[in-house]
Amino acid sequence: MQDNASTKMLEGKVIVVTGAGNGIGRDFALAMAAQGASVVVNDLGTSSAGEGADAGPAQQVVNEILAAGGKAVANADSVAEWQSANRIVKAAIDNFGRIDGV
Prior knowledge:
By secondary structure, this protein is an alpha/beta fold.
């Protein structure tokens, strides 16, 4: 019998977490990565210095996931517009080959 404590429940899954730059979204992104998921960390925010998304909270969460040995990419598109939401899904497919959950 397998030890559930060492089993990564989301191993091999690809998950998009919106609002993942801060707060509960950040916590979900980190937890899903810790459970083995590849994560698209989506957040509209920019850094406090006003740089673009690659310096903002989504990238900071990605950096944490990568440092812990996980897989993640940042995305700064809006979920409120069809074209932007499509780019979020495309980020998952382009980087990890599929999408299993949002």
